[in-house]
Amino acid sequence: MARKRELREVDAIAHEFDLDVHDFSDYLHELKSSGDGGSKDNGDFTKTELRERAMWYREERLGERD
Amino acid sequence: LVSGTDLDTAAFADAVLAALSGQECTLVRASYADELVVGFGTLRLADWPLRKTQKTPWMLYSRYGTWYVTDGSDRIATDHAPLTEGVLQKIRAVLVNQRVLDVAVDHRRRSVLARFENGAGLSLSEATDSRNDEPAWSLDTPAHLRIDAIGSQPTIARLDSDQGRTAEIGSTLLHSYLRNVAQTLDLEIFEPPGVRESGIDAILAAPNGTILLVELKLRREPKELSIQIISTSSAQQIRELTVLPAAEITEAQLAGVLRRIVEAA
After folding, report:
1. What is the mean pLDDT of residues B132-159?
2. What is the per-residue burial (b if ≥16 Cβ within 10 Å, else e) of A31-52?
3. B26 with B97: CB under 8 angstroms?
4. Which of residues B212 and B43 earns the better pLDDT score?
5. Interface pTM (ipTM) of the complex?
6. Are B28 and B125 in contact (CB under 8 A)?
7. Which residues of chain B have a CB within 8 Å of the CB of A32?
8. Mean pLDDT of chain B
9. Is B33's CB within 8 Å of A60's CB?
10. Mutation test of the interface with chain B: which of A10, A15, A18, A20, choosing the one with the most B Cβ atoms within 10 A?
């Protein structure tokens, strides 16, 4: 199932970056909803993109971006 | 010494979910990968860096499970179709502003069914192709506890609200929690230095001579919390911790349980 594959990838990246999985999923959903989604056909993120967004998330939370 | 038992997480989850009864559904939205999110209680904006996402004190996430919503007679939405804005609107029309009437839980099937006062229902359960280590659903509570429906014994983790992630093993948070409880009850607290060897995180001594040994168990994977209390005098009261009627193990509630153990001695 594609949905579960996406969830597994998000869970794995959230764990790798020590992020709350619910918050990180919501963050990705916000990005995708605002037209800043990933390069997959439906706007989902590749693993590389998920890692990049996880770094954004961490940096933004610490106030290092924007 | 009377030996204790690990926290019965299924019983604890039952108690927490029972406290959902009476809560008003205020939020129905999606998260990434078509995850259904249903919230109960006062709406607020999520913490930065989230910008538009709304949260509530109670948050139910569909995770890896299968789900459906009924309007009392028919299924109006399921996870078998994409979670579009149109589907979300249908769900909002039957759930939002409705209070939960009761909640039925089946830990063997990892299922939870919430019935609402208008007859609507929300069901989440494990999918047929589910893996035991992937939660069928997940519930965040106002006390910053997270229940994940993993296996027949759900896991319970304490969320660190500052960091937005689950607390680490032996965290200062948990020890300050214990110290506050001890202070409330006027118990002497001794925290042995060799926790790793003894497994005992704290020894509480009451003025009447009752000694309570407290063991906090936080595992990194899965991030799971259990509290074991070994009283020198009562085994029966140990179980009381596992069936707290309220939704949260707040300091006051743990203090109440410990007070009863001490007074029963």
Report:
1. 82
2. bbeeeebbeeeeebbeeebbbe
3. yes
4. B43
5. 0.93
6. no
7. 32
8. 75
9. no
10. A20
- The answer to whether the CB of B214 falls within 8 A of the CB of B227 is yes
**Residue B6 carries which side chain, given as an amino acid letter?**
D
CA distances from B228 to B4, B107, B130, B186, B231 (A): 7, 22, 31, 20, 10
Q: Comparing B244 with B8, which gets the higher pLDDT?
A: B8
Per the CB < 8 A criterion, the answer to whether A51 and A12 are in contact is no
Reported confidence tier of residue B197, pLDDT bands at 50, 70, 90: very low
Provide the 3-class DSSP secondary structure of residue B263.
helix
- Quick one: angle between helices B172-184 and B251-264, nearest 10? 50
The confidence band for B139, taking pLDDT boundaries of 50, 70 and 90, is: very high
> Among B10-19, B75-84, B138-147, whose mean pLDDT is lowest?
B10-19
B31-to-B70, B111, B163, B232 alpha-carbon distances in Å: 21, 20, 20, 48
Of B97, B112, B100, B102, give the one whose Cα is nearest residue B27: B97
Question: Residues of chain A with pLDDT > 90: what percent?
Answer: 62
pLDDT of residue B147 exceeding 70, the answer is yes
Taking each helix axis as running N to C, give the angle between helix A2-16 and helix A47-61, from 0 to 180 degrees, rounded to the nearest 10.
Answer: 40
SS3 B99: strand
Q: Which strands, in side-by-side order, build the sheet including B165-166?
A: B25-31, B35-40, B58-61, B138-140, B145-148, B155-160, B165-166
CA A51 to chain B, closest CA, distance in angstroms equals 15
Closest residue to B32, CB basis, from A18, A20, A29: A29
Cβ contacts of B197-202, under 8 Å, gap ≥ 24: B201/B170, B201/B174, B201/B175, B202/B175, B202/B178
Contact B77, B91 (CB under 8 A): yes
Element housing A8 (H / E) = helix A2-16
Sequence-distant (6+) residues with CB within 8 A of B59 are A22, B27, B37, B38, B39, B40, B139, B140
Q: Running DSSP on this structure, what letter comes out for residue B234?
A: -
